[in-house]
Amino acid sequence: MDEAKLDAFSDLLLQIYRTSAELPLDAYQDGVLNLLKSVVPFDSSMWGTATYVDGQGLDIHTIQLHNQSVQMIQEYESVKHLDTTAAMVEGKQQTTQAFHCGSWFADSRFGAYREFQARHEIENVMISAYTDMNTMAAQWVSLFRADEDQHCRPEQLRMLSRIAPHLMQGLRHNRMRHMNSLS
C-alpha cells in the first residue's frame, strides 16, 4: 500500500473513533456507515448482533438498519430459514464474505427469499462478522448493493475486512461513553 493510501486509511480510522466520541448513541452507526461509503460503496445495510439457530436462521438480538425500513426485518422473519448466508459466518471467529444474490440463491427453492431481496433492493452483499466463540453470539455488518451488476471487488472486501473491527470497536466506545454519561 502506498503512502497516500495509508494516509487515507489512517484518516478514516481517526474519523471512526472521533465519530464514536462525538455522536450520540442513536447516530453513531449511521454516521460511520456514511464514512465507510467513501471506500466501500453500498446502498443500504444491516448491522446487528444475533445467534445462529440451526434450521431456523438468525435469532436477532439488536439491529440497526441504514437506508432500509423496519418492514425489511418484519419480512425477514418469514424467510430467514432460507438465508443460507447466515450459516457461512456461523462458527467462525472472524470472517468477511461477499456474494451475488442471483448466483448464491439461484435454486428455485429460494424463490421467496429472492423476492424478499428484490423488494428491498438487495442484489449484492458484503458481510463482515465476529463471533464470540464462548457464547456463539455474533456481531455483523451487512452492506447491500441494489445494482445486480455492482459486484464486490476483492480490494473492497479486503478494505471492509480491515475496517469492520474498528466500526465495531467504535460502537463499543460510543455505547460506553453513553453509559458513563448516564451515571
What descriptors fit this protein?
183 residues, alpha+beta, five-stranded antiparallel β-sheet, 7 helices, 5 strands
Report on this model:
It is a single chain. This protein has 183 residues and is an alpha+beta fold. It has 7 helices and 5 strands; from the N terminus they run ααββααβααββα. It has helices at 3-22, 28-36, 70-79, 85-89, 101-104, 111-119, 154-182; strands at residues 44-53, 57-66, 94-100, 124-131, 137-145. It has a 5-stranded antiparallel β-sheet with strand order 2-1-5-4-3. Helix 2 (28-36) packs antiparallel against helix 7. 28% of the residues are buried. The mean pLDDT is 91.
List the helices and strands and how they pair.
Elements: H1 3-22, H2 28-36, E1 44-53, E2 57-66, H3 70-79, H4 85-89, E3 94-100, H5 101-104, H6 111-119, E4 124-131, E5 137-145, H7 154-182
Antiparallel strand pairs: 1-2, 1-5, 3-4, 4-5
Helix pairs in contact: 1-2, 1-7, 2-7
